[in-house]
Amino acid sequence: MSLRIFLAASVPLALAPSLLAQDAPTRSAGLVRTAVDTDRDGVLSLSEIEAAVAAVRALDKDQDGKLSREELGMPPSRRGGMRFRRRGQQRDTSHPLDTDRNGELSAGEIANASKSLRALDGNRDGRLSKRELATAFRGVGGSSFTFRRGGGGGQSERKAPEELEFKDGAAVVPDRATFDKLAYQGDEVLIDTHLANWRFVKFQIQDTDTEHPVIYFINTKTHRAHMSFMSAAGIGRGGFGRGGGGSSMRGVLVYRPLLKSPNGQPGLFTFEFEPFDSFPFHKIKLAHRMLQEKSPILRGRLAYHPLNRAIARYGDEKAQYDAAKLPVVVPKDLYVDIAYLPLHEAQSFGRLRLMQQGERPGVRDIVVYRTLPNEMPRVAGVMTAVRQTPLSHVNLRAIQDNVPNAFISGIADDPRVKALIGKYVYYGVDANTYELREATVQEVDAHFLSARPKTSQVPERDLGVKTIRSLDEIGFADWKSVGVKAANLAMLRKLDLPAGIVPKGYAVPFAFYDEFMKQNDLHAAAAAMRKTAGFATDTKKRSEALAAFRKRIVKGKTPPWIKDALSQLQKSYPATTRIRCRSSTNNEDLPAFSGAGLYDSFSHKPGGGHLVKTIKRVWASLWTFRAYEEREFHRIDHGSTAMGVLVHPSYTGELANGVAVSADVVYQTKDSYYVNTQVGEDMVTNPQAESIPEEVLLHPRDFQADRMLRPSNRVKAGRRLLNEIHLDELRECLGKIERKFRELYGLSPRALFSIEVEFKVTPDDQVAIKQARPWLY
């Protein structure tokens, strides 16, 4: 049994869907990538990167020690024709290895080929994925598409739709496969910039003022412009009148995977016309009927999408649309009735389980949840019947583990899905569809054998630092002694950010945890626990044993010198201060391993006794079930993991909390930061049931280009959680933080890399950033 459901996007007109579904790379990018990618798998492995110098040098046909534009495959300067680009667009078309951007590779640039490729490795995992390569090489060599107006000569006889060669178009679109063959998806869209990276097919209806109108579906891969198609089909320019007059209608059929269709199914097709067109209702009704007659896949899944001038006319004629029950989607409706949201695109195998409250899944389970779990250990895949927040720990875990994750409306009650519960399945998620089918035991075993690291990993740690230091005393390199979370926050305090936006704090080093564990013989106890019968094979026994071990840590005796140091730290704060104690380990917040949601943080309340009580609770969280399972899957040595503690005043009475990323990681729009915010202490990372956060796309430079996508459902209608001052501060901070961390990790500006920050809006109405870490792609 196989479910293959094509779904689509609730993205406003100005937003673009996934950038991954691009046409083939330009020839200049392809020559170098093909030369270096010796096994032709589309990924550059560590060995291929290290061998890049020789591979690139082999392209030097004339043996002059450098690569010219011709040897790189860069197109010559174009003459004639028309080139289209978005107004104000400045696209970098230089080659990633061409560091001086002069259009050729010098001997020195060839010699540095491996170094330049390593600088593109945004997640620092030692390889360049297909997505990292697509980002780095996008636009190299400039546009490969030129539109030329028809030359001189007489007008050829008009072809009937049935007479078209498929390279030009078709008379009917009988199935989805034909639609995809006709469709274009990419950024070479001429003046139709709002269609960039959407999957669309242009169409043309002729003779609309006669009793026998005809429709042409245009092969949009061949003809991006109607005029180009008209020349090939012998259609004259007569009969077209601006504003909706004339007998010709030039339209676009767009597939939007996220929206719900009129028939209730995920995936909506919309049809629209040129921005200055404003066709009357009877012509829109004609187009709606003809599109469905000639394309059965559109029946029950098609809606009219009026643009610009057409919106006003639709408003005047709305009663006619309502009476005819002709579906219409106006721009403000593009975030309503989302039926599918691909939160992490990946493929996996495992046993399908419909989770009940209180049940704990295993690493080989593909889980279906009716409501979001409060916490989730490692699983093989996730489907939820309620919409997730993209920046929740559930989704961050899916990204970390590279398992498919999607919101799918009605998934828990779909009889086709219910028939697969308890069986081994394949589950895949991409921008347009999810697929679920029965799988064999052999497929499942092979998948997990390939997904799990082959060798053990020993995280770095420095146990030589035995003093508590303020964040202003430590730097980025100190993560080996205090943990990544503390070191990253310390770096933020050294940036030129608005005053008070990063809290003052202290870092309790790994050595305190290690000495405490030695004092109580807990290192040996942990090793013995892992060897007990049933621990490795029985999930319940493992969970119970870990819970008992955490209690031993909390009850352990603290060495006097550690207790004294923590006492001095506690006394540095006024007695009325609520002190936040946050986990900071040597295996989280790293470029290739976020560890989001694995460990716990706690607040020490005034009058709560010695601070060491709360510190020990943080130490104990190193041994939660979810953290243990994650380390075990990645073969991370448990004995070498270490827990530091980041200490700073706790935020109380916060007005809002949120997460922001220095890229649009959900809708994949260019020049956007993605921001989720929720009121009070309803955490974006661990949201309450049915919580919908405020969703904003923040432009990196232009406040006028900011977009409010969706308001919070926890506040009154019309209220915004983030005002202009908050947004401007986040805009400034995200840019500075990302640039600094690119520098710290030695990354190229073209590397696929973004930074994620967690923030609060304090009772004083000030933005406060409490955490920063690399976003995992």
If you had to describe this structure to a student in words, what would you say it looks like?
It is built from 24 helices and 25 strands. By secondary structure, it is of the alpha+beta class. An 8-stranded mixed sheet has the order 1-14-13-9-10-11-12-8. Strands 2-4-3-5-6-7 form a 6-stranded mixed sheet. It has 5 domains: about 25-135, no CATH class; about 160-335, no CATH class; about 340-450, Glucose Oxidase, domain 1 (3-Layer(bba) Sandwich), CATH 3.50.30.10; about 470-650, 2-Layer Sandwich (Dna Ligase, domain 1), CATH 3.30.1490.20; about 655-775, D-amino Acid Aminotransferase, Chain A, domain 1, CATH 3.30.470. Strand 3 and strand 4 (about 215-220) form a beta hairpin. The chain starts with a strand and ends with a strand. It is globular and about 95 Å long. The longest helix has 22 residues, at about 725-745.
